[in-house]
């Protein structure tokens, strides 16, 4: 059986919701801590559920060992095994009540209205650290030089993922399920691929893939070595290189 954990508000869930490191650390109010819990203060609390109790509708049917946290949902069943390797708790940044205290910890930031101290998520200032985020939550924009959360992969709640209509899809083919970008070009015929400005046809492999050159201005297009601005639009440069180094630099295959 499944029991959805209600959100604190429209933007985030309780930290106890999360049973995996990446989904916990995607929430600026939460922080993944180890080792995992071995006991809970409340007699009905389950260490495998971040000390939440087995949902009332399953009480008497399943024990703590038969329940697990997965994507803002408590799942209970005879064959369910919890594999939680830590615990998701409120970030220590929330202990700071003013900017001076918050600024002393490089992992925290003072922001929002009203202002509060929260944990930094994808606030890197360089590409290497952004793309090397330990939870793979972040993406670097070469044009704006900004780091931000991935638009789909950093979403861990089914409804929030599906609300991004036309952009994200909820993939249940893996365990746990993931939110991923909807392929826009995979499977298109050569003619349809060439006709779609968002797609690029690879002559060597005869497959259609998403285009790398979707910039909307000449300035942003020109800074990408694999793109060129022609006829008022940005497109991929023809791959006519004869040596590997310039070919790789232009993003050719």
Q: How is this structure best described in words?
A:
The protein has 253 residues and is an alpha+beta fold. The protein contains seven helices and 17 strands. The strands form eight sheets. Strands 1-6-5 form a three-stranded antiparallel beta sheet, with no helix packed on it. Strands 2-7 form a two-stranded antiparallel sheet. The N and C termini lie far apart (47 Å).
Assembly context of the chains: single chain
Helix tally equals: 7
Strand content: 15-25%
What is the helix content? 10-25%
Order of helices and strands: EHEEEEEEHEEHEEHEEHEEHEEH
Radius of gyration from the CA trace? Answer: 23 Å
Major beta sheet summary: 3 strands, antiparallel
What's the average pLDDT? 85
Number of distinct beta strands: 17
Shape from CA axes?
Answer: globular
User: What order do the strands of the largest sheet run in, or round the barrel if closed?
Assistant: 1-6-5
Distance between the termini: 47 Å
């Amino acid at each position: 059986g499944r029991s959805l954990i209600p959100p604190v508000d429209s933007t985030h869930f309780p930290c106890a919701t999360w049973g995996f490191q990446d989904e916990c650390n995607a929430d600026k109010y939460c922080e993944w801590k180890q080792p995992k819990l071995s006991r809970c203060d409340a007699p009905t609390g389950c260490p495998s559920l971040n000390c939440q109790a087995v949902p009332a509708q399953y009480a008497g049917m399943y024990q703590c060992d038969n329940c697990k946290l997965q994507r803002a949902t408590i799942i209970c069943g005879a064959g369910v095994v919890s594999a939680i390797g830590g615990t998701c708790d409120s970030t220590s940044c929330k202990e700071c009540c003013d900017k001076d205290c918050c600024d002393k910890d490089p992992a925290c930031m003072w922001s929002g209205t009203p202002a509060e101290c929260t944990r930094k998520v994808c606030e890197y200032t360089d590409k290497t650290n952004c793309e090397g985020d330990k939870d793979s939550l972040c993406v670097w924009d070469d044009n704006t030089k900004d780091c931000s959360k991935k638009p789909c992969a950093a979403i861990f709640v089914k409804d929030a993922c599906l609300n991004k209509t036309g952009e994200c899809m909820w993939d249940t083919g893996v365990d746990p399920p993931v939110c991923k970008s909807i392929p826009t070009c995979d499977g298109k015929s050569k003619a349809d691929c060439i006709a779609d400005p968002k797609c690029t046809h690879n002559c060597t492999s005869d497959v259609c893939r998403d285009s790398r050159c979707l910039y909307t201005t000449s300035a942003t297009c020109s800074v990408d070595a694999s793109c060129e601005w022609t006829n008022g639009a940005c497109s991929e440069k023809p791959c006519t290189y004869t040596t590997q180094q310039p070919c790789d630099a232009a993003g050719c295959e």
